[in-house]
Amino acid sequence: MNSKAQQLKEFLGRVGRAALVEVAATKGSTPREAGAFMLVSASSILGTIGGGQLEYMAIDKARQVLNAGQRSRSPAGEARTEVDEICATLDVPLGPEIGQCCGGRVKVSIRLVDASLEQQLIANAESEEARLPHVYLFGGGHVGQALAASLALLPIHVFVVETRAEALEGMPETVETRLTSLPEAVVREAPAGSAFAILTHDHALDFLIVAEALKRDDSAYVGMIGSKTKKATFRNWFLKSAEGSETQFARLVSPIGGNAVKDKRPPVIAALAAAEIMTALVSHAAEAPSSASADKTMAG
Q1: C-beta neighbour count of 212 within 10 angstroms
Q2: Each residue of 59-115: pLDDT tens digit?
Q3: Contact 28, 102 (CB under 8 A)
Q4: Contact indicator for 136, 186 with CB cutoff of 8 Å
């Protein structure tokens, strides 16, 4: 898995010298929040602070900082790099003057990346990744493959759980796979705040996994692929045979992706379901108390 921390390491190892461009403060409507950052080298960038003219201005200023931090050649002819106390600040109104109409204001800090800052960025990225929500996708069929590909693009940990080894072939590299004869056990082991999307090849297996997920009151999302008839059949079984309650059943999202778009092609279902799952994760995180607010700013 090519994690954010690994991307930082590879970028900084490849470019040698870089400047950190970070959104230090915001006011009003802005493209990114405080703490969003990017790295800028002489010829490439990693990340974004929201695009548009604001980002172009920040990149240009960062390269000025890079040039200012580059000392002239020593008498021996060897290039020397000085990074101490080299920084800059931009305070930019996002209005027609720069071709943006957000209406807010952004303060951007720019500083050269030294060894200490590099270590801090990587450590913060590793900490952030450790707190990413988990999404468990049960079933690696056509929709499962498409949904795994959509979810792999998002800032979450994705696990695809299957009872069939062949169904796990061809999954995205950033997705973890689990081959097990007891997929419902994976639900019990998942951390609080996880999301569960159930779309196996077997309705009976779907029911077992969904029942296990609904009995957890700390999950962010429980969704099952299927029709109104399948949902009604599950409800009857869940209440009569699985000792479930109406309150628990009410948390079930089925069909996944909603029914506003009448298109059953796997990539379409996957796109709608991925948006639905991400919305649920963000809402759940907003409702939960956070003890990691100090970690939101990546660069201190």
Answers
A1: 20
A2: 999 999 998 866 533 344 343 333 344 678 888 777 776 666 666 888 999 999 999
A3: yes
A4: yes
